[in-house]
Automatic annotation (TrEMBL):
Species whose genome carries this gene: Gimesia maris
The protein, known as: PH domain-containing protein
Positions of transmembrane segments: 31-49, 61-83, 201-219, 225-242, 262-278, 290-309
Alphabetized UniProt keyword annotations: Membrane, Transmembrane, Transmembrane helix
Amino acid sequence: MNEKSIDETDLSEPVKQERVFRQGKKEQNEAIISLILFGIIGLGFIYGMCLNAPAETRISATLFFSMLWGLLMSIFFWSFLIAKYVSVAFHNGNLILQGVFSKKYILLSNIDVIRWSLYSHGQIKVETATEVGTINLFYFNKEERLWMIQYFRDHFLESRQENWPLFCHQIALPLRNRHTIKPRTPRPDDFLHTRKRWDKLIIIFATVTALISILPAWYFQQIKYLLLPILPLCGWFVRYKIPEEGIPVSASENKNFNEASYFFGIWSVACLIIYLPFRFELLPAPTGISVGWTITFIWNFGLYWRIFLMNRRDHQKDLEDAKLSVQEWEAGNRSSD
């Protein structure tokens, strides 16, 4: 993935060392294959919409799904451009940041601030008196990320580094400890969350959604409602974020997540119960008010409020744990010296 091999001894080299980090042919080929595969699927889906959609909605439905698939294609195309052009280089005391459309040369000795950002899979933002450069760690593999994190951590004063404790707790330490953490002691309420289990959950949700979609499709005589199972099927790709061996999960440790899940289910059912009588014209809709959009707004407001409360609680816990993470990081560095 990178042009030069990386090892721990690199960290002791002088500032004028030369290193280049970029994605390789494998990532480019994966992006091209995805572009072609989903492009063919999208064309077939759009063609099917043209054949089956009612005449009065055929054009609008085709345009909508064309825009949707066009957005997906643009994501794969952007991934290809990133794999082909984006790179980070250390050369003769300069930090060279190559983007898709731009290139920056930053003198390492001129860097005033290192800002550790939690965005995406972690970013390293370097600031001088005149410009700002960003290294998105998501584009690089584990060894390359750790090398860059350790480099900026070692070569710049603590006073010039911002947000390191939280970054260390959420990004750096989990990255370094990946695949090296000893198995924790099993708990009575543990269960193994695997890809197969996620597949079963997706199948259950898709089946339930398909059964629910039959009623409005039959009542309104519109086949478009039968496309509702596509929504839970879109979540199938999350399975690849689960390790092949699975993740042991404790129900008590995931109390916040479980509470949020229960709230999401009860809140969704409550909004659906309120909406259906108006949708099937069992109750008269208020004049000048769209019941569907109003209930959707209320549902989204409740959902995001719950997410906000959960994130605030998690953030407070992270602040408390960050100091211990920094100590563990530094202890690990001393033991490897």
